[in-house]
Fold this sequence. Notes:
By secondary structure, the chain is mainly beta. 6% of the residues lie in helices and 41% in strands.
Amino acid sequence: MKSNLPYQLSRTQTRFLYRWPILPLFTILVLSCGKKQSAEPPHPTTTDTATVAVSKVFGFDGQQRYAYCPSVISQGSTRHIWFCGNEPAGVFSDHIYYIRGDSTTVPKIVLAPGPAGTWDDRHVCDPSVIKGKFNFNGTTYQYAMFYLGNRTDRYYNEIGVAFAQSPDADAWVKYPDPLVPKTWAGDQDMPVGGGQAWGVGEPSAISADHQSKILLTYTIGDANGTRVVVRQADLSDMTNIQLGQPTIVSTAGLTKLDYSTGNIVLSNADFATDSNRTTVYMTSAVLPVPASYPAFIPAAVDLNRMAYSHSINGTGTWTAIERIGPTASGFPRNHNSGLGRDAYGAISDLQHMEHYFTVSRADPDVSPQQNALAEWTYQIYVDKNIDLTKP
């Protein structure tokens, strides 16, 4: 698991830090020297109403297991939910689980790390699932799952894809190689700022044509800093993958934890559109993170919107919809969020949007000891019925 900190950690120390890519020096200083913050400051213009509908979706209570990074497809009253969890209990080994969020189901692992020596033999995480038509090894699949993969003997992350015929499939068929490899050549890690570059990950996919063309967004962490990019792709034939050039997603209009602007770093974002593809909605982490343990997990996530055409061109300014922080959720850490979307990545009911996120406890309720780690308190929550038709 990878760290954004300016020094190299051991394999056992990194744990969930791999979720946060290498950041520019200014941000690193903020992360390491900022004052302890126990609650989010009041927004100067927006009233936080998220506490009205925030509720728990799922968690492995008391099992030394974590549940985070939800990807959700809403089909009528049905909620298909994929998330990142560990197996076995007490061990940091990321697997992708599936549950039905609208009924009592037993979570099942549907994607596991590959065999030893493969590019994703250590962790698989950050699922993003869409429907379409994807031909792989002579079979046309109806669903694609994009995910972060990591190998045991390297520090960096890359992005893969797997396929299935139904959202509740017991197992997904992996494309054998990374779909989006790291940004530098060669097979070695890249030293950056006393540490090593994070690579690419945290994918979010939206169907562009209800077939095989997609818009793929993801985070990059390398020698050029941290950013989120968007690129077009055509996966109609996995023997002839078509990937467009990446464009950096704008950070204009985004704010930090204290609602200040400037030197904004965007990472760990999930996206959706409206049905007419005129607007893009984005949920993302809010930085800097508080200095108290767990100092690698943000206190808040933001929901913003922008014109679709601007978002794919790397221009435009984001407009805030809501912030979920300690005041809204009742938890000191709120992170790794996702949007409830239809099978193609759109919000079909703009008056009842669902904003999913992960909660965590913090010091003094948890500590960096095996039986008291913050990770064992990760659970998935949701803010329901957000009305996107309001200004």
